[in-house]
């Protein structure tokens, strides 16, 4: 995504982000998927991950987040708590890894630098991408959760 396109998209997402920051303390919003890596098509949606201190169960969050979207943009939004997202990184979840590696932080909050540090730590442990997932070097047995 070009810097100009990113700035335009961030401006369009501003009302959504403002509603999030009124509802949650320091939410993180990551644009990921095809748009973030410049492979989107005219019919592509915008994939967002919101990391915040949610109190509702996962599926209830989806409705809550959808109701906060007053942008008319085709958003596909997933919501995770900070602990859930960190566990996803620890478990080598491809979506979590790629959203931190290639995603565009729309609202980085204070958590995003920590997520980047965690990804760097995983890389130091030998994180590699296979054809369909990620794995750590053979000698690494476990990661502390």
What are the key terms here?
145 residues; alpha+beta; Beta Polymerase, domain 2; four-stranded mixed beta sheet; 5 helices; 44% helix
Oligomer: single chain
Structural class: alpha+beta
Give the helix proportion (percent range).
Answer: 40-55%
What fold name stands as the CATH topology? Beta Polymerase, domain 2
SSE order: HEEHEHHEHEE
Give an overview in words:
By secondary structure, the protein is α+β, with helices and mostly antiparallel strands. The chain has one domain (3-135): Beta Polymerase, domain 2 (2-Layer Sandwich). The protein is 44% helix and 17% strand. It has 5 helices and 6 strands, in the order αββαβααβαββ. It has helices at residues 3-23, 58-68, 82-90, 94-102, 111-124, and strands spanning 28-32, 46-51, 75-80, 104-107, 128-129, 134-135. Strands 3-2-1-4 form a 4-stranded mixed sheet, sandwiched between helices. A two-stranded antiparallel ribbon has the order 5-6. β5 and β6 form a beta hairpin. The longest helix is centred in the first third of the chain and has 21 residues, at 3-23. The model has no long low-confidence stretch (mean pLDDT 88).
SSE topology sketch:
Blueprint: H1 3-23, E1 28-32, E2 46-51, H2 58-68, E3 75-80, H3 82-90, H4 94-102, E4 104-107, H5 111-124, E5 128-129, E6 134-135
Parallel strand pairs: 2-3
Antiparallel strand pairs: 1-2, 1-4, 5-6
Helix pairs in contact: 3-4, 3-5
